[in-house]
Design goal:
Radius of gyration: 12 Å
CATH topology: Ubiquitin-like (UB roll)
CATH architecture: Roll
Strand order of the largest sheet: 2-1-5-3-4
CATH class: Alpha Beta
Number of helices: 1
Distance between the termini: 39 Å
Strand content: 25-35%
Shape: globular
Order of helices and strands: EEHEEE
Oligomer: single chain
CATH superfamily: Beta-grasp domain
Largest sheet: 5 strands, mixed
């Protein structure tokens, strides 16, 4: 299936979930947030949130600096 991750098209197998996409995008152990179709998905729900064709997911990582 085709979805959009941070604005870029990606092909994923049917049944892929938010946790798999986050793991593919970043290895950061904390400070990561995910939004699916403009709705924040709680970290505890990532593995249970299955993606569908044309879904849009944004993966955000907090950074420190100044």
């Amino acid at each position: 299936m085709k979805i959009f991750v941070n604005g870029e098209a990606r092909e994923l197998p049917d049944g892929a979930n938010v946790a798999e996409v986050v793991a593919a995008v970043t290895a950061a152990p904390s400070g990561v947030a995910a939004a699916l179709n403009d709705e924040v998905v709680r970290r505890s729900a990532w593995a249970a949130t299955t993606l569908r064709e044309a879904d849009r997911i944004e993966v955000l990582t907090a950074v420190q600096g100044g």
